[in-house]
């Protein structure tokens, strides 16, 4: 992997890559698809970071998110984490070059919603979950918390390899100098945000990533976010509001959390807000609400009752419960989840190719010629909640890939 260089030896983006088109934009950068040249073989995704501006002239430097992502990406190597090829500095901008993946989970879910809501095959879901948890276990064992897991950030190659991407909000948690809340007051896209975060916890653990994995699992099953709330924005004083609507969406399915099941609940800064939620919901935390949601989802998509390879079954419900436990200390860890009976029920290890045996053909990732110039000065801001800018609702000129 190359380092940042200077002078005549410095690499140039257009000297190493031919930019094919624009893929997506995020909070801190824009992503482009490129073809390698001059010794670089294959296709790549290039993420461009621009420096933060101060006024019309001065620059304050590269964002904290970009610095973190660069530092982490260069140290991480795992089949289920997106591989970083190199980092290039050019004209006050930083470019991180990643391996290219033809799909992401958001695109796969969307494809199924557009095909008469045909269920994602149970075998495919099991492989996706297994690979996702393997990548997450690697991150957590190396003291990295992702803090923004969602379908749009989970890449899938044409060979069915699942890879965790976008480490822009990731954080080392081994020896923090301050609480994680001090550095980033808002983490995780709202629909995938764990209850301890919604209740204002200043100290949290990698369990927030496992809650997000539970939400992703539910979304793969139902083809829609399980807890689709509306985000309350910060006020002018930048104080973090209680996310009432999002918390209510969780409570409507799982029920109100109880201190008997979550001893530290009453110490949460927003604990008093729970009593103000609507009275038409379950008044106690109960597994029956999630169980009802789960079996109705499987019935809706006509999953067969057997064999195990054809249905998520009762083992799938058990895994989902373990991932969506209110108490983060009881929530399954990545290691525990990988040993769950759900992955062992048909007597063999989940497929390394999540597309194996599915018979499904998914469209390639959307690539447009809008804003195709990677050296363009424009960098419109985007939000981290809901769907990203490349989320299928926007008409765009398609490029033929292949």
Task: Describe the protein's architecture and organization.
With 402 residues, the protein is an alpha+beta fold. It folds into 2 domains: 8-99, Phosphorylase Kinase, domain 1, CATH 3.30.200.20; 104-343, Transferase(Phosphotransferase), domain 1. It has helices at residues 13-16, 64-73, 105-113, 122-141, 180-183, 195-198, 207-222, 244-254, 287-300, 313-323, 334-338; strands spanning 17-25, 29-36, 43-49, 52-54, 58-61, 84-90, 93-99, 103-104, 144-145, 154-156, 162-164, 171-172. Strand 1 and strand 2 form a beta hairpin. Helix 4 (122-141) runs antiparallel to helix 7 and helix 7 packs antiparallel against helix 10. It is globular, with a radius of gyration of 21 Å. Mean pLDDT is 83; it is low at 377-402. Keywords: Activator, ATP-binding, Kinase, Magnesium, Metal-binding, Nucleotide-binding, Nucleus, Repressor, Serine/threonine-protein kinase, Transcription, Transcription regulation, Transferase. Residues 17-343 form the Protein kinase domain. Component of the SRB8-11 complex, a regulatory module of the Mediator complex.
């Amino acid at each position: 992997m190359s380092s940042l260089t200077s002078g005549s030896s410095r690499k140039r983006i257009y000297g190493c890559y031919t930019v094919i088109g624009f893929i997506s934009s995020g909070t801190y950068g824009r992503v482009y698809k490129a073809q390698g040249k001059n010794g670089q073989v294959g296709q790549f995704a290039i993420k461009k970071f621009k420096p933060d501006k101060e006024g019309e002239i001065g620059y304050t430097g590269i964002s904290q998110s970009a610095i973190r992502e660069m530092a982490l990406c260069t140290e991480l190597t795992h089949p289920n984490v997106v591989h970083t090829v190199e980092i290039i500095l050019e004209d006050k901008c930083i470019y991180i070059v990643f391996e290219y993946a033809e799909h992401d989970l958001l695109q796969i879910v969307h494809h199924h919603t557009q095909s008469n809501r045909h269920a994602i095959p149970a075998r495919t879901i099991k492989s996706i979950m297994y690979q996702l948890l393997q990548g997450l276990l690697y991150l957590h064992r190396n003291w990295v918390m992702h803090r923004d897991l969602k379908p749009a950030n989970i890449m899938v190659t044409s060979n069915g390899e699942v890879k965790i991407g976008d480490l822009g909000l990731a954080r080392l948690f081994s020896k923090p100098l301050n609480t994680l809340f001090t550095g980033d007051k808002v983490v995780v896209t709202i629909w995938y945000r764990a209850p301890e975060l919604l209740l204002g916890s200043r100290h949290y653990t990698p369990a927030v990533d496992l809650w997000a994995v539970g939400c992703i699992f539910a979304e793969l099953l139902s083809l829609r976010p399980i807890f689709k709330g509306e985000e309350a924005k910060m006020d002018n004083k930048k104080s973090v509001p209680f996310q009432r609507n999002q918390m209510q969406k969780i409570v409507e399915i799982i029920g109100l959390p109880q201190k008997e099941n979550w001893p530290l609940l009453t110490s949460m800064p927003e604990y008093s807000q729970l009593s103000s939620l609507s009275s038409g919901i379950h008044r106690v935390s109960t597994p029956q609400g999630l169980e009802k949601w789960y079996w109705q989802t499987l019935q809706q998509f006509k999953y067969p009752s057997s064999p195990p390879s054809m249905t998520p079954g009762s083992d799938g419900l058990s895994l989902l419960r373990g991932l969506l436990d209110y108490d983060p200390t009881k929530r399954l860890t990545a290691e525990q989840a990988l040993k769950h009976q759900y992955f062992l029920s048909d007597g063999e290890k989940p497929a390394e190719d999540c597309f194996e045996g599915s018979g499904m053909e998914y469209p390639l990732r959307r690539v447009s010629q809008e804003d195709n110039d990677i050296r363009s000065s424009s960098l419109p801001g985007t939000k981290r909640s809901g769907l990203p800018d490349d989320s299928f609702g926007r008409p765009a000129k398609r490029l033929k890939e292949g």
